[in-house]
Amino acid sequence: MPAPKNAMEIFRLLDKSNCRECGEKTCLAFAGAVFQGHRTVDECPKLTPSEIEQFSGSPSGGPSIEENREAHLEAMKQKIRKIDLAAATERAGGRFENGRLILKILGKDFSVDAQGNLMSDIHVNPWLAAPFFDYVLNGEGVTPIGQWVSFRELKNGKDRYPLFQKRCEEAMQRVADIYTDLFDDIVHLFSGRQVERQFQSDISVVLHPLPKVPVMICYWRPDEGIGSSLNVFFDQTADRNLDIGSVFSLGAGMALMFQKLALRHGFVEN
Ligand code: SF4
């Protein structure tokens, strides 16, 4: 489809139910946010992959979702070039070596130089790159206090929670249901740790996708006809170290990583 000329062209493709699953109050508000580049069209869970594809493969040269994401990352790189990386090190909870700010991301070194170039031992997943930049640029560097809250309790989290539930919690739950060693493997691969079971869950695992943004995943196995359940918790300070969009990306990005891990082990979701 040609690049939309206004928000109404995007609105026409939406299902107009105003279901709020994207976190906007109406489909029209969502269309406006997409048109202004604040949201991407794939954030409406009602659109099918082929409808999303219509936006992505714009023959007229309009920006695709991927291009929007790239432009966003490039803008953040530009900002990194203007800050003193060494001075940001302590706030970010990292170390500074050979001109690079190095942070532990899921147990692996992930670094950025003064030009904004990222380097990592793990694949630089764009879902994780944006929160990394946001954390370095805008995070307050608040130390976690050990109080776990859900995504919807974080600042501005309530409206976006339905989409977070779908893209992060439900996606992780589907993986955990088929891949029984998931939690042992993520503890091992991503330097996580099993903690005392929280909220009467069967398994509670804490991971550090950013040094001062711990994430706790709690899983309840299916039991006597009751389905399984999975919830993701953040430290109460998470919204001071990251904005809610980045917290969302982190959760959705981790869910994608788990899905890939499951695939690599031969587990395929129904
Ligand atoms: S998710 Fe948002 S854009 Fe999609 S149908 Fe619901 S309210 Fe409309």
How would you characterize this protein structure?
With 270 residues, the chain is an alpha+beta fold. The chain folds into three domains: 56 residues, Electron transport complex subunit B, putative Fe-S cluster (3-methyladenine DNA Glycosylase II, Chain A, domain 3, Orthogonal Bundle), CATH 1.10.15.40; 71 residues, no CATH class; 117 residues, 2-Layer Sandwich (TATA-Binding Protein), CATH 3.30.310. It is built from ten helices and nine strands. The strands form two sheets. It has a five-stranded antiparallel sheet with strand order 5-9-8-7-6. Strands 1-2-3-4 form a four-stranded antiparallel sheet. A hairpin with an 8-residue loop joins strand 6 and strand 7. Helix 6 runs antiparallel to helix 10 and helix 7 packs parallel to helix 10. The chain starts with 6 loop residues before the first helix and ends in a 6-residue tail after the last helix. 34% of the residues are buried. About 2% of the residues have low confidence. The chain binds iron/sulfur cluster. The site of iron/sulfur cluster (SF4) has 14 residues, from helix 2. This is 4Fe-4S domain-containing protein. Keywords: 4Fe-4S, Iron, Iron-sulfur, Metal-binding. InterPro entries: 4Fe-4S_dom (IPR007202), Dihydropteroate_synth-like_sf (IPR011005), DUF3786 (IPR024264). One of its GO terms (molecular function) is 4 iron, 4 sulfur cluster binding. It holds the Pfam family DUF3786.
